[in-house]
Amino acid sequence: MNGSFTSKHFTLEKVSEHVYSAIAKEDGGSGANAGFVNLGDKTIVFDTFNTQQAAEDLKILAENITGQPVKWVINSHWHGDHIRGNQVFKDSQIISSNLTYSKMKDTHPTRIKKQKDDIEGLTNYIQTLKEQLTQNGEMELHNQIGFLMELKLSLPTLELVLPSQTFHDEISFYGSERSAKLFTLGGGHSFCDSMLYIPDEKVMFMGDLLFVHCHPTFFEETNPLKWMEILKKIHTLEIDAAIPGHGLVGTKEDITLLTRYINELCLITSEGLTNKNIKVPDRYKHWSSPENYIQNVTRIVEWKKITME
């Protein structure tokens, strides 16, 4: 194994002396960002991507660069693009919060079986997209096709591997040269979101609590108020680099930007606006995934109705 190895699924970036981020390529099998930390004599991997082939590349690079096996693997939350590569790390200790474990166990077996049973449907859908690509040549279609082809490739051998250890509030990891702390402040983006803080490096892996220069994804479980509370607490920590679940590596400024974004969404949904007259503000137009903006407005409207009942 040499240092020139690159992955079709992600771009590896050295964030600090001992921390690396793996930034997802849109046409690969990653689906979301991941990364790893060298604690001296032990290595931690944070999240395992959407496919086992992307996870395999991450494992190769982590072991090649650190010169040792991966000791611990973190699942930041239960969403598939962060945990479906777990099977590559069966020999490591996979860790998540209690709630993340429960959601993975309850939800993914059915989801994965449904996808495995409909590979033909996925194949037909990919072919339809390829025909559209021939007509208009849009890069977004190219990326979507690449991602779905990697998903199709993963399905025949995909298996759900659950965490072997869980924690409630926080857990610390100690290596011969530095330490890291895995902790959760509850749910914001998902039912429960965990972060990994490396104080000596002043780096935070934030999972999907942070999106950098791309519109976040809100789900039925998303709680915008708790999300903002978490971001404000994280902002008080000593952080030079914040590794998001989606987008490029950011800073505290990006944490502030996302907090403002969520707050603005909460404000406009209080003004009785409908999807027809909602437009992406100019300051967010350069962010990727602009289609998420209106979806997020709809989610917050639904969330407000539920919380007011």
From TrEMBL:
Record's signal peptide: none
Domain Metallo-beta-lactamase: 31-246
Pfam annotation, one family: Lactamase_B
Top-rank taxon: Bacteria
CDD domains: metallo-hydrolase-like_MBL-fold
Protein known as: MBL fold metallo-hydrolase
Organism annotation: Bacillus salitolerans
